[in-house]
Amino acid sequence: MRYEVTAMRGTEGVVALTLDAADDSDVSAKMRAQGYTVLSAIPLKTFKLFSSKGTFPLVLFNQELLSLLTAGLTLLESLETLAEKEHREESRKVFEQIIARLYEGKTLSTALQQFPEYFPGIYIASIKASEKTGDIPESLSRFIAYQSQLDLVKRHVVSASIYPLMLLGVGMLVTLFLLVYVVPRFSRIYADINTDLPLFSRLLMRWGLLLEAHGGLLLLSGIMILVSLAYALTRPGIKRWLSHQLWSIPALGARLRIYQLARFYRALGMLLRGGVAIVPALQMVTDLLQSGMREQLSKATATIREGMSISRAMETHDLSTPVAGRMLRVGERTGQMGEMMERIAAFHDEETSRWVERFIKLFEPLLMVFIGLMVGCIVILMYLPIFELAGSIQ
Predict the structure, then answer these.
(1) How confident is the model at residue 51 (pLDDT cuts 50, 70, 90)?
(2) Going by C-beta distance under 8 Å and a sequence separation of 6 or more, which residues neighbour residue 157?
(3) pLDDT at 155
(4) How far apart are CA 148 and CA 154, in angstroms?
């Protein structure tokens, strides 16, 4: 849900922002992570089926800005160049407002904080840390690598899912064709013959007659149900309930936990390598975790603040795996905690990719068997009376 937030921070005074968040508490958490004090948060009403997030191309922005900076242009010259070439009105306005903030003497990170819907907190924190060392290009490179790795995992999952989804779609279309077009015609034939039919054949034929008599009403009801489901899936409460149900499945829940931990460690490693302290970095990556794991992270952050080692805190509050625990201890000994966290993420990303491949290889034949049985049963039930009639004639 999108909120209109009025907040204040330090000497900036009162600012008005728009922010995407699950609920009021999520708004407060996100704004506190950026150092703001929330004065009011008003949900913006929308009647769209699907929420529209900002369309600012963050990864492309980083790649182009990095190219211009490494070519020798200053930060202002680079942003002005990007604004001049930008043909999308929304993105050009973002560039213009950032440039205006820079001309006012504000830093890039401060300017980016005016657009939390486009620039995530971990990105702004990374830029802010790089401003202290004067190495913004290095920060941009790290974020590009971070986002590229996340996109790589997502693309792998999506590409592995394309064939099963196509197979399922074709199977459903064939089934609908049989139920909507073929079965009603067989129903009329058997009604004229007036012969006894097997139980399941009678049920199938009655469905055909019902569809023929009230097809328009059934079609309208089906469309309304689909629209209602699509609308329900956009509601935060429904999303949380579905997420909880998925996490409650033992095998799937364990994989989702590892995927989120990999994303968590990758973002945390990027921030640590950029010079962000561990406690602020942990607070910035809270949103990357599922709601149940956020409480565990809050407790781990508190124990780290009290002096406990990172590896022990993560293991104590169940935010680690056997591999991650050992690698964190190595990172503490060598002082390369950021690099080690990114290696943890890479290890678990590869593990997730292998699991997806194995699951798809098992799921595809099972799906083909299921679709074949479903279509075969419909065909057999349609032709079974004909076979029995032919037997009685002989």
Answers:
(1) very low
(2) 353, 356
(3) 78
(4) 10
- Please state the rounded mean pLDDT for residues 80-101: 86
Q: Are residues 254 and 338 in the same domain?
A: yes
- Identify whether 355 is part of a domain: no
Decide if 152 contacts 263 (C-beta within 8 A). Answer: no
- Structural domain of 345: 250-349
Q: What is the CATH number of the domain that holds 271?
A: 1.20.81.30
Mean pLDDT of 61-87: 87
Structural contact between residues 123 and 58, judged by C-beta atoms closer than 8 angstroms: yes
Let me know: does 75 contact 108? Beta carbons within 8 Å.
yes
Local confidence band at 1 (pLDDT 50, 70, 90 cut-offs): low
3-state secondary structure of 55: coil
Residues forming beta bridges with residue 6, ordered by sequence position? 16, 40
* Residues 335, 268 within the same domain: yes
What amino acid occupies position 73?
Answer: L
The CATH number linked to 10 is 3.10.20
Q: What is the pLDDT of residues 279-302, one digit of tens each?
A: 888 888 887 788 778 888 899 999
292/321 same-domain check: yes
Distance CA 171, CA 82 (A): 48
Tally of structural domains, the chain:
3
The predicted model scores a pTM of: 0.62
Q: Please report, for the chain, how many H helices and E strands are present, in that order.
A: 17, 3
